[in-house]
User: Fold these one by one.
Assistant:
Number 1:
Amino acid sequence: MHVRNGLVEAIGHTPLIRLEGPSKATGCAILGKAEFLNPGGSIKDRAALAMIRAAQAAGTLPPGTPIVEGTAGNTGIGLALLGNALGYPVRIVMPETQSREKQDALRLCGADLRLVKAVPYRDPGNYVHVARRLAEAEGGLWVNQFDNTANRDGHRDTTGAEILRQSGGRLDAFTCAVGTGGTLAGVGLALKAHDPDIRVVLADPMGSALYAWHTTGELKSEGSSITEGIGQGRITANLEGAPIDGAVRIDDAEALRVLFDLIRHDGLVLGGSSGINVAAAMRVARDLGPGHTVVTVLCDGGARYQSKLYNPEFLKARDLPVPDWL
Ligand code: PMP
């Protein structure tokens, strides 16, 4: 018998799943780290826990201190659950463009949710700055996931270490999209420490500036994406010095086709960033040729986006592919 004590110990230890459809299509082993199985439903439970633990260790989170964060939703859900289990009130600032399902999940957890207009980072009304000012005004802890490197350290020590253990360290490449960069940088650092020849590839949605940054050195974006929680216009502290060997850009139509196939052929209902990640893994696998192993991350589940990614009206209005069974 193996019992995990409470929410904290239930985070992480997720399976590494061989994705049969993508593996068959590419002749490679495409392996997905099943982060949608975390208690809060996403990869961000790990970052939330790592950042809370780091603040406790630094003495900046005495019992009862409000935890304040700006988030696309998933970090907020992780923080709200942990706040409940560990005794901290949680205040979340989120752009109003994020899915209704994530807003509902945050309210269900009892988070104090404030929705703000979606404006660029340079605007003082951006959700990140609103969260910082709210924390200052209330004597709360601003988690600051983008520039708090406890996020990346947590992924290096848990997500990265688990991938190495579960794959026996035998992998050729890793693909990952970036929101804060914590996952890509943390896992990348763990993989490179084990074997510098493992290729770390950035998977970028349209509308993000990182593909251009990696390929031309200039932070520049074009287009847009319906995916949530990923895409970045600046080099966050978590991304600073991340080991990145290559970058691929994936548009929404390609990501959606991969997501629809994963539902019908693999039995996995996943969120948009997982579609970007798996599509990128398949591109890298085709470049490497048959017989290689490519690992990626299944960041969250599709139920969180049913009103968007899996809503025929939403897709049709944007000229995106609609699955024939919906
Ligand atoms: N996918 C989803 C669904 C997310 O919510 C996030 C985090 N915003 C990411 C991917 C990106 O992860 P990271 O912040 O570690 O770059």
Number 2:
Amino acid sequence: MINWGSGLNNPKFKQRRKALVEKLRKKGIKDQRVLEAIQMVARHVFVDTALQDRAYQDSALPIGKKQTISQPYTVARQTELLEVKPGEKVLEIGTGSGYQAAVLCELGAQVYTVERHKKLYEKARETLHELGYSIHAKLGDGTRGWSAYAPYDAIVVTAGAPVVPDDLVAQLNVNGRLVVPVGDENRQEMVRIIKIREGEFEEEHYSDFKFVPLIGEQGWKE
Ligand code: SAM
């Protein structure tokens, strides 16, 4: 069973969420739908009870297995770059706590998510299920994507990659967007690849972030 803290709809947490959304707006997040989705998701439910009081600070927090729930600004920025429309099929690599998947669900996406750590995969599935979010989750190496359900309208990688994984590019739909942090282990540039038409891609680069490493066949070695 997950711990609901002092209740899912505790006004204290709702109020803090509102303040967080205002902070994200001031930091430059413009997409109103993304801000509304963040307003809807109870981030405190995705972290341990001891950390729930810090859930609405704009910072990453530990979730076990040396992994983190990403900083809210990072989630908001990646989601903004994905430009998700309701009904689109979205693949997330790095389920972690499940928080980003919940934000994507709030945007009306059909969410597919892959995690390599069994404990995190199981806990995220349970949390999302208990919150009523319907997602497709898989345990495995997300650097290879999830070919059974490809192509995707959007793909987001929530761990830092040494290079853009080829398999993820190959699983994009026409007009599909891939958002992936690429760089060394200390700093990554946010890269967005848009598939214009079959065999033609546009690549854009955004400012730096710091992610935990993407580990796998087309990522870093363990
Ligand atoms: N999106 C997550 C959330 O909302 O809580 C945050 C993810 S955390 C920053 C990055 C996650 O990527 C970790 O849970 C890590 O185990 C996972 N990861 C790293 N390499 C992976 C891979 N090759 N396939 C799937 N997951 C991977």
Number 3:
Amino acid sequence: SIQPAERLQELPTQFFAKLVGKANAQVAQGHDVINLGQGNPDRPTPPHIVRALQQAAENPQYHRYPPFNGYMFLKEAVAKRYKEDFGVDLDPEKEVAILFGGKTGLVEISQCLLNPGDVCLVPDPGYPDYWSGVALSGARMAFMPLRESNNFLPDYSSLSMDDVNKAKLMFINYPNNPTAVSAPASFYEETIQFAAKHNIVVASDFAYGAIGFDGQKPISFLQIPGAKEVGVEFYTLSKTYNMAGWRVGFALGNAEVVRMINLIQDHYYCSLFGGIQVAAAEALTGPQDCVHELVSVYQSRRNALYSALDRIGWQANRSQGSFFTWLPVPKGYTSESLADRLLEEAKIVVAPGVGFGESGEGYVRLGLLTSEERLQEAVNRIAKLNLFG
Ligand code: PLP
């Protein structure tokens, strides 16, 4: 029989595949399921971006292999956006790598930097794709618990010195999936000092960099002096422009890390389809009203959901960014037992916090990825379960 290589057996099981399976079974039985469990934007890509792809697809130039590591015009476009949005200067030639979505880079960076026996510091709870790259590199993860008492920021002083001394790479992610908090500049300053002192490369996952609530624009790690010396930021068009299916992301910052990521990509891929690169450049350099509109849609949904939850006595801190809400589970439940009950009795899918790591236990994640009416309907159904006695 055909046996997988050992490294494949190291890959974490996809917790959320189980969730999707349970939800699909309910849909197959004919139930009207409200899926708040996944992070898939529900709205379409703005039409001017789609038109840019249609036109570019007609151009035979893009039917050939694209240049290795992608077109310079797209690297220039993302550098221009970072300058305008964050005041950050990036050299498009040396400090920008084009990725198939942020996800590929988040997995590849571990393969670039980690040897067996090395440690990677990973937030808990956190986005599970960080685990996969570490597993494939044969290194070991040391979790950094994110606790509500510390505003869901890691406390570097509480980490084991043995782990810190062996660490070569660390992930941070604000606005955070799943806790939905944003980080202040002081946190990034502390991170840069910590990383420089212990010689650790920082991977800042800025997938939700455009989505901040109550007028608070998220801060980019690269805005902070010294950031480029210690790490890179992963940026993606998936959430900002409703382009999750297009698979466009970037690694930005430290030239040496960018060079390594490009090197790995050379071996796996050539680059994205040229037409997609043209459309991605249009997204970044064209009118940005679509981004403002997107933020205000999520803001209204967030406000509507929390007001409804307040009315049924489910109290939680307001999300500061991302398109998620992170809610403490009521007494008597685990995150999984609550998620199971919500699915079976209310036909609502939520993500149990434990799927993001042990420290996620005690919470469930609900996405703001459906209309205000459907969110309201979800809370009406939850109200009937009398979760709060
Ligand atoms: N990082 C976080 C925290 C995410 O939630 C996601 C997507 O869900 C990604 C990265 C990956 O995004 P993409 O590969 O679509 O760029």
Number 4:
Amino acid sequence: RRVVVLISGSGTNLQALIDAQQHDELGGEIVAVISNQPDAYGLQRAREAGIDAVALPHREYESREAFDGALIKVIERHEPDLVVLAGFMRILTPRFVQRFLGRMLNIHPSLLPAYQGLHTHARALADGAVEHGCSVHFVTEELDGGPVAIQAAVAIAPDETEDSLKAKVQAREHLIFPIAVRWFLEGRLRLEGDAATMDGTPL
Ligand code: GRF
């Protein structure tokens, strides 16, 4: 089973997926890593793991549609069973989402449906929330709104800072993302209509 990972940044989630693959715990192979940011450190992580690393700078395209069209081409060249968004900081066009619907997962740093969008840690702290976390979800046309597959929660300490909370949540991201990918590649986790299902049962 073949996985293509899209990134924009440091790629710590990508690293967790690479590590899982190297321990035979991913259920498939990462065949390419694509970044819209040419200097993303995650591309270096991919190269070090012997994975095809592709920079596709979105700035070189005149529109979102043109960029997504190019991205679709690069992805499809690698014939993936699953497309994984691991800190890919671009809003995708409906055409792109439809193309990979039901076979694209994203990790988001909140307990969805809470805190969709950016700056989730700061917003949770500002609200005085007692817990926060992360979610892996199927990507649909609603930004950060697709059906959730797995979540992990962390308690917010009284002296929590944005950085400490981010670190706590990221440690959980690195745990749950490889699990969700494995479930998908094993055929256990699926998108059926509007629902994520696990072994045929809606989550
Ligand atoms: C993660 O916190 C993820 O939840 C968010 O972007 C961040 C990517 O971090 N969408 P990294 O590149 O995997 O280190």
